[in-house]
Amino acid sequence: MFALDGISAADVPLIDDVVYVRDLLELAVRDDLLGPAGGPHELIKDMSVRDRYLVGKLAPRRPDDDQATRVEPASAAEEAGDLEDERTAPLHEPGAEFASASGRVEPEDDALDELDTTNNQSLIPSSMGLTFCVAPDVEKLTVNSRWGRYERVPNDEHGIVKTRKNRQTGHEEEVKVRVWQRIPCGGVASLSLVDGPIKPSIPDRDQPDVRLQGTVRTNNKGERLVTLFLVNGQLEPDDNKDRAWLFQPEIIVEAPEGQSDKSVFRRRPSNEVVVDDPERDRLALIYRDRLEFAVGHGVSVHADTTPEYPTKAHRVRTEIIPRYEVAVTETPGLDPRDRPDMRRMVDEGWLDMTRLAEMEPDALREALACLVDDYAVWIGEQKKRLGTEISGFDDPGKDVIARCEEILRRLREGMNTIFADAETLEAFRFANRSMAMQRVRSIYALKRRRNETVDVIALDVPKNRSWRPFQLAFLLLSIPSLADPAHPDRTKPVEAFADLLWFPTGGGKTEAYLGVAAFAMAMRRLRNDLGGLDASRGLAVIMRYTLRLLTLQQFQRATTLLCAMEVIRRADDTTWGKEPFTLGLWVGNRVTPGTTEASHQAVEAIRNNDRNKSGIASPAQLTSCPWCGSEISGGRDIEVDRIAGRTLIHCGDKLGSCDFSKAKSSNEPHPGLPVKVVDEEIYHRPPTMMIATVDKFAMMAWRPEVRNLFGRVDQECGRHGLLWPSHDCGTGHRARGSYPAATVRPVRAIRPPDLIIQDEFHLISGPLGTMVGLYETAVDELSSWVLGDTKVRPKVVASTATVRRADDQVRNVFMRRISVFPPTGLDVEDNFFSVQRPISEKPGRRYMGVCAPGSSRPAVLIRTYTAFLTAAQALFDRFGPVADPYMTLVGYFNSLRELGGMKRLAEDDVQTRSFRVNMSLVDRPGLSQRRVEEISELTSRVSSQDIPRYLDQLEVPFEGVFDAAQGKWVTNRKPGEARPIDAVLATNMLSVGVDVNRLGVMVVNGQPKGTAEYIQATSRVGRTPPGLVATVLTWARPRDLSHYETFEHYHATFYQHVEAQSVTPFSPRALDRGLTGAMLSIMRHTYDPFAANDGAGAMNSPSRKEMLETIGVVAARTWEVTEDSGKKALSEAEMKSRADEWSNEAGVGGRTLVYQKYGAGPTAYPLLSAPGIKPWTDWTVPMSMREVEPGVRLVMEDDRSTSDPTWRPRVKKPEEDQQ
């Protein structure tokens, strides 16, 4: 099964080491794509060597190449790698092969059936090389060039045969097959460094036409820049052409033997333009030891350094399949070498949420002070390093220290605030208690979903309910502004902090801001009468996302927290109130129902078909109970009360023991799980916390009901809940069946949301971010309230794993200044709250690059997919479930077009090749036959009803038993059990928020357009097991080729390469598209006369007080954000122009001006129009933040297709145009 570096299957022990399995997987794939799979003297049977290996090939010179015209470069000033005269360079000379490709192949052409790479020999390079820099005093280098050549073994010297059918006789007969044997080649040469062209040398005298050549240049520092190429100048023979090809080529350069200082290689000079950018300087500081020593030409490179001298390298070499392992970022405290106080917090249990909730004040202060004081000591240690250990970075170093000291000040303020009064301390305890229950119950529910027998009490131990230090610190940062609404972070525009939680994907950001949310909701219940507003109910926390997949998955996670909070409230409703803690899901009505009637129809559709085949929006957004893991059946466990307007989702626990089952919760104020998924119910009974997509906020301009989410209410119906202008409850309702009579009564206004959380903040960019920033004018205004003489704004928290220029982005979107937490330290490996462990101690996520010049992209993907799938199967056969993380292959694509083409190939070629991988004479050690049956897709084309099911299926592991008769592990699924997914193909929907811990391997199709997307997407694998990511880079795309040639350095510093985001909410184009929507959102939800649909007619004058105040709000925000008087004047002028138009429309007689025609009378005239086929006007208002022009979606319905269409093609007339 395995033959990796001489290891056979019998030599591989039975292990339970997933790291070792990951390493074997990489070796198997590398051997299959590059070779030599059978060792240095392998035999390749019944196949061309060029077909056997995908990468690592240098083509020979074709007979029609003109050798007579070859000349050496005229001077050393020529471009590195362009060693021949550009007018006469033969096709396979250095640097020429890539330029020649542009006229022979279309880089974007999928060429789906082009699998024979030998057909593209003219596009396969004949050379490869590298450029590096050495110290001024280096005179000589040692160059080791090596490769493999394959010679045909004569038929009379081997007895390898195969059986085939004779076409003439029809009988089976044995025939000898072609056999190629590998012969290691190469040699070592001494290279003298003299400026100018390097005289070509012959590494191996047996192949005199294979030569090493290049140039040497000296830069203004005296350092020497050396470019070397290995060139295959052999002539292609008429037969047995593989003899003239070079396989597995490699160039290794180092100092000569006997030289005392081997570290002769220096940082390669950069061509980057120097700009005044403090953030760029801070990044240069923390990545100062991760240097680029060489760059490849048609190949990648690797430099060997030592930990003692990271800024010098002692060896550089080429790499056909480069690899780099990104270190895992983790929180300190568990390693014996961590800071003593960090270990003390773990040992003393001071990170245990349950213990923090129960500690006496003095003990709690000691625990929190341990963290805060140690941070102060760490900052002092970093200060001492500046100017001594670290030099040349004084300004960015001082900037880093200043940011850390600001965080320290706020941490101390947060700790002191906890003990300032009993209410804040109680809210802190509540947050810890509820988060402890959330963590334990999440683990319990997951194990129950996997059919594991588990006891929740056994899981309720400190390791399952402890904060990571940065999570607890982030809670401390947020406490002052949430405990005191009059805090400067809530009352001072622009100067207030918006906290940006920056932590690598998978590090625990969600739990951090859920803890902050729990504190905010608890604090609100304890101080529920400030400013004369009712805070005992209403929406307290808004969590916003950009993608529905992310929204749905986070909804499931947040539900567990609300369940925990509700359990605590039920046990002590005197303290925490009679109003239940609930969670709302406010997303598009293609996902969740907009009305109770729509919810009823969806549930009926589920009951009639046992699933929602109709494709309408569904309330069935939870497939299992987040509290106990029991399955939730949409038809059985969802109850729609059409009279009261409620949709209740019960736990499906058949024993009725779950706190949220129908048996135990039917008498509660909110029976079942504390969730609300229908818009109508969310408006009537606003949840305590709401998860929403940013797009949904575009509906503020269209729906008067949205005002209830911001507490702008004054009436309540005893049966239906809070009302809004133009409601249809009248003065009340008569008794009906079991429903008593209900009246409409006046109520106090409710306090608006206290906390806004924006997850995956890096996605709030470009056109979407611009629209969000403009509409945020309305959200911020509607969420503000008055306490005494002070205007209180909501606290803003954002989170991301990748961001650049976040200060500008936060200012433009939220009109606040940024506070990034945790701030960077002086080293990328340590910022106190997180550390990067050495790879030797803590395996990270390993990246490998695959680039095959001359091969079509589909051909490369097919080979790569097949190699990964069958290698994983071989590992499963040998090691069993320990190989499960690598059995589900994740394919990532930059577009639906590319994904669609690959899905067809995966369902055809990949399936066939995987099954037949060992059905030939070709030895493929490390690969095993596999039936690839489950290929799924995770894209925008997947319906919202199917997404939860797909996510659940991704959690299904490959399990098996050892079959002694077959000598391998085999899968053992019971009848009716879900089959694990073999491959899932995804677009950027996967890149945020998909947290499936078992996934361990991914193939990326081409370098994504943004580094942030690349980091986010690839971080979806390797969360629990060590991950392996193969990036397939297309040689015909210059950007892909550039990434391949600098593969290792890019991955060593890819957080440094994250692109800055652009958000311009008050640009002329943005005002044209979104100003009317933002204006109406403020007008309709702030001023009652304008709220109802016919309130459009209330604009009897452009100088109405309400309009002037709205203009003032928008103009003031424009100035605070842009500090541009021209843009402020533009926004004022645009608003006044709209006021004039609106007033004119309202003054037209004989009609009733309404916002929208739907549901209005015959004389109604609509003011607004939705984007459509009509031209965009000032009164075109989007219904989504992304809406510019309507899209058309084409869906092929198989059940309606026919092989006998009713139409017939018309006969072409002779006189018609023949073109």
Helix content: 25-40%
Structural class: alpha/beta
Can you count the helices?
Answer: 30
Low-pLDDT residue spans: 1-12, 67-119, 1212-1219
What strand line-up does the widest sheet have?
23-20-24-19-29-32-18-33
Termini Cα gap: 59 Å
- Count of beta strands: 44
Largest sheet: 8 strands, parallel
User: What is the general shape?
Assistant: globular
Strand content: 15-25%
Average residue-wise pLDDT: 88
Rg over C-alpha atoms, rounded to the nearest angstrom: 34 Å
GO molecular function: helicase activity
Organism: Bauldia litoralis
Region (Disordered): 58-87, 1194-1219
Protein name: Helicase conserved C-terminal domain-containing protein
Describe the 3D structure.
The protein has 1219 residues and is an alpha/beta fold. Among the domains are: 9-34 and 842-1034, Rossmann fold; 43-320, no CATH class; 589-684, no CATH class; 714-748, no CATH class; 1068-1166, no CATH class. Helices cover 31% and strands 18% of the residues. The strands form 11 sheets. An 8-stranded parallel beta sheet has the order 23-20-24-19-29-32-18-33. Strands 1, 2, 4, 7, 11, 14 and 15 form a 7-stranded antiparallel beta sheet that branches. Mean pLDDT is 88; it is low at 1-12, 67-119 and 1212-1219. Keywords: ATP-binding, Helicase, Hydrolase, Nucleotide-binding.
